[in-house]
């Protein structure tokens, strides 16, 4: 199975890439031109060099893929403002989701974070029914993508 992945060189991404490669999957990873790849070189067989906000890079990443796994976040955007976070994290994530749908990918995996639940209600267990209450731009970014994933599932049949 060909799996397209963002964030393969990060902490969680490198473990994900190694596990998927051990499982016999072929990996194509999106990386910036300045990204060190040596830690995941043995696991990734195809590289798409570009930025998450580049439509051509996204199209190249998802072309022919069976699955897309989206892990990456632009951490510099998370330290600035909601508008920068929107343009460098949220919008590119939604563009990746749309590129995957247009390429015929039926399985899109978005790795979210417990940061979407920062303010946990007293006496309530933490599960998918708990309201999203992020306290950071990172949590807000992750929480904002989640309803779009549900919408794509219902509107387009994408898992």
Descriptive overview:
This protein is α/β, with parallel strands linked by helices and 159 residues long. The chain is 38% helix and 14% strand. It has helices spanning 11-22, 55-62, 82-102, 137-156; strands spanning 2-6, 26-31, 46-49, 67-70, 107-110. Helix 2 packs across helix 3 and helix 3 runs parallel beside helix 4 (137-156). The longest helix is centred in the middle third of the chain and has 21 residues, at 82-102. The two termini are 16 Å apart. The mean pLDDT is 93.
Comma- or semicolon-separated keywords:
159 residues, alpha/beta, 4 helices, 5 strands
Q: Brief overview, please?
A:
The chain has 159 residues and is of the alpha/beta class.
Radius of gyration from the alpha-carbon trace, in angstroms:
16 Å
Mean pLDDT: 93
- Biggest sheet record: 5 strands, parallel
Anisotropy-based shape: globular
Alpha carbon gap, first and last residue: 16 Å
Strand order of the largest sheet: 3-2-1-4-5
Stretches where pLDDT is under 50 for at least 5 consecutive residues are none
Beta-strand residue fraction:
5-15%
User: Helix segment count?
Assistant: 4
